[in-house]
Amino acid sequence: MFKRPRGTRDFLPDEMEKRRYVEGVIRRVFEGYGYQEVQTPTFEHLELITTKSGEEIKEHLYHFKDKGGRDLALRPELTAPAMRLYISEYQQKPKPRKIFYIGNCFRYERPQSGRYREFWQAGLELIGSSYPEADAEVIAVAVDVLEALGLKDYSLHVGHIGVLRRILDEAGVGEEDQNRVMGAIDKGEGEALEHLLDTLGLGARERELMAGLLEMEGERDTIEKARELLEGREGPLRELDSLEEVVEKLGSFGVTDYVIDLGMARGLDYYTGTVFEIYAPKLGAEKQICGGGAYSLVEVLGGKKAPTCGFAFGFDRLILALEMDKFKFNEVKKDRYLVVSTTEGLLDEAIRISRSLRERRKIPCQIDPMRRRLGKALSYADAEGFSHVVILGEEEYKKGKIIIKELETGRQSLMDIREVEGFES
User: Fold this and answer.
1) Prediction pTM value
2) In whole angstroms, what is the distance from residue 239 CA to residue 223 CA?
């Protein structure tokens, strides 16, 4: 017996039905805002990944040399591939470019609840605009997806990484050391952060400001409280103004339920401004289902500077959050029909009827190729989740009729065979 590799999963039809439903909702919302789907290779040049995330990421990658000696890696996320695609295909075209993607990614990590070695992401990028309405739109799209899915228990946190960075700028802390500070904050490593700030020789006032901001979380008046704390600090206050502009635009997009979180510092080096995360509390420690913000990555990968804002859903965690939220996936199942002939002589007619339902009425429909007796065919249809069974009985057929049986209610009705083309469930 062969077993699947550790950290991977097989998805049976019921699970795939859930995943395709969620994927369909995501696509519909993304496309409604004008984003267009792209797809990138499952593996990329290793250098693309390390240029974006640093050499240390290699221990978390599936990377290898191909037969030509080239260093390649299975993609660990979809942002860098999307930016590579933008540089090669869209850089000279009018802005903004609005793209989205849904695909599998790979990381060599210890598998745990909601975290696998093969996992899926669904995300988008708005490239070319640095205006607040661009950042606000991206956040609004993420919220609209959750609303369209009907997820009840989630929390949106919005912040601005520039506020913390300007404090460090004014204290003379260089970009590389700033990135280390942001990484420690993002991981919640309090002791490591304190040690790092000691090493950098950060002054008492700067440490006081940072400590105050890291604790600031709440409603919109949090911005005013931060202004009071930062009085006289021109750089951080400018970034705070930028956050307020984004928050104002969020209201125009209909997003009013959020937490201002000034202690948020996403650990990736290229984030420059607005940042946001969405949590599903019922997932426990691994509660983040979406994260993103404004960043500058195109020039890091060799392109011309282009402000970008984007996000990615952890698709697998999103499914898990819906399940924990008691989402009734069975209520969104599509109708499926099984056509059964009670006699071998009506088999060809059963095939013709199933074809007519598929082609003319766009109803998923199939015959029973096992030639079961009616009772066993009905048991099979019920066990396999069919919604209706179309029965061709010899007596009914002589009168030009067929039987439509709705399995959930047990209700049966007769229909003229000639009306099948106009049949509605």
Assistant:
1) 0.87
2) 11
